[in-house]
Specification:
single chain, 203 residues, mainly beta, five-stranded parallel β-sheet, four-stranded parallel β-sheet
Amino acid sequence: IIAVGGYVFQNNETLTSITLPDTLIGIYTGAFSGTSQLTTIAIPASVTVVDTEAFRNSGVRTISFAEGSQLQVIGRAAFEGTANLSSMDIPANVGELRERTFYQSGIQSISFAQQSKLKSIGRYAFAESGLQAITLPDAVTLLDYDAFYGAKSLNVATLNNGLETIKGNVFYGSGLQNITVPASVTYLGETCFGGCQSLTAIE
């Protein structure tokens, strides 16, 4: 098996576990979306794509990527609405977090592999999620519109030197308490820190 195709297990309410083979290269659109009883999944190093809505609204609590992961693409809304998901380590070769990747998810902590190639965080990627803190990898240049909108538990965001653009509403309504904007930033979008009721200092 080299792929789990689109919507293969969508809305399955009895699947509790699955072992993915080391030959797998892709988990495609909506493959495990709505699998309410699936709690843990280990993704082999051979997988290069976790596609659009792959785990959207699933019951997963733990998603792990094998050492040496070749993952390059995390699709739009891949983990949207995963209320039980609390943490994830993003493999080094992932170049962007696309629109709504963790939108309205329970994600509390996110980490990035050393030498991360992540360059951008897309629209609503962590909006209204449970994220509490984030440290951006060195390669990130763009935070797109509404990336952390309404993330009320987000108290700490450490921005990297090399970040260039923070678009509109990026941190709107988040729980930020203070933040340092690197000298490399050339653009702050409209109301990017609007509605941050706990924000007391910007440097």
